[in-house]
Amino acid sequence: MITGVPVQYFLILATLMFFAGIYGFLTRRNLITMLMAVELILNSVNINFMAFNRYLYPHKMEGMFFSLFVIAVAASEAAVAIAIIINIYRRFATINVEDVNEMKY
């Protein structure tokens, strides 16, 4: 039996982070805060991967490898999203979602 923090605490933390990210994504109108909400969602998934890996298979590394993969995807997603946001700001002089209603060539 593994001693330490129970898995329920990790799941509660990941659930709170996930729903905070969903709330932030649905209610915010700024593209940067929406990107931060997506990153919060991805980090809650990482917590789940690590917690389940630790408590179900403590001597294997699959959860950690999946977490590293999610971190790599999140980093590349953030880089592409920031580049898109910079181009939107240059074109429309705003990064609010409701102000960018037309995307023209």
Give the topology.
Blueprint: H1 7-27, H2 31-56, H3 62-92
Helix pairs in contact: 1-2, 2-3
Folded structure, characterized:
With 105 residues, the chain is mainly α. It has a single domain, classed as Orthogonal Bundle (Helix Hairpins). Helices cover 74% and strands 0% of the residues. α1 runs antiparallel to α2 and α2 packs antiparallel against α3.
Largest sheet, strands/sense/barrel: none
Termini gap = 60 Å
Question: Low-confidence runs (pLDDT<50, min 5 residues)?
Answer: none
CATH topology tier name? Helix Hairpins
Structural class: mainly alpha
Number of strands: 0
Strand content: under 5%
Please give a handful of descriptors for the protein shown.
105 residues, mainly alpha, Helix Hairpins
Write a concise synopsis of the structure shown.
By secondary structure, the chain is mainly α.
